[in-house]
Amino acid sequence: RVKRISVAVVIVLFGVLASYEAKAQAQDPIQTIRQQYAAINRGVAKYKKVKKELLGFSAEGGELIAYFSGPSIVKISSTFYGEMGRATDEFYYSNDKLIFVFRKQSHYRTPLTGKVVRTTENRYYFKDDKLIRWIGEDGKQVSTTAPEFSQGEARVLASSKQFTDGARSTNPTIEDGP
User: Is beta strand 173-175 parallel, antiparallel or unpaired with respect to 48-55?
Assistant: First the structure.
């Protein structure tokens, strides 16, 4: 009889812990963003693609591809080419709000070779138009109180707006500058 009660208590405790863990994950905005990111990438083949040329953003030009689900942009991929490397930014959206940006920079050994010798990555997590986490190129979280945190937030939000506006326009190019 004691054994049955012990087993029942253990089962109940596991159930409570599993329920608590599920609720904690559901409330974690980073986990939610990661799930949305994965879902968008799984469905990328079904979205309408719009390509634009990027002018003035980098020395060797660039390209933007916007992915639409109906009237909403769900992903934008922009690639910038330069003499000493290339950069790719992927912007992810949920309900027309920026949720995540993945930036990868590839650095060449010598100009225009395409031979990558080093890559750096940055990850920006957003909630309600606010940067909530930034994982820098060293793989560490950038402090929310660091001056570069608010500068990074402003820079990424401005790029997002410029690219979403450009993706929706009828113009085949998006130009940097005034």
Answer: parallel
Confidence (pLDDT) at 61: 86
Cα–Cα distance list, 39 to 42, 44, 111, 147, 169 (Å): 5, 9, 37, 33, 26
Nearest-CA neighbor of 114 among 122, 106, 124, 103?
A: 106
Torsion 46-119-142-63 (CA) sign: negative
Give the separation between CA 23 and CA 63, rounded to whole angstroms.
Answer: 41
Half-sphere exposure of 155 (CA within 13 A, CB side): 11
Interval 120-137: pLDDT, tens: 999 999 999 999 999 999
Q: Length of the chain in residues, anyone?
A: 178
What separation in angstroms does the CA of 174 have from each of 16, 47, 67, 161, 171?
53, 21, 16, 12, 7
Question: pLDDT at position 134, please?
Answer: 98
- How far is 117 from 13, CA to CA, in rounded Å? 51
pTM of the entire predicted model: 0.82
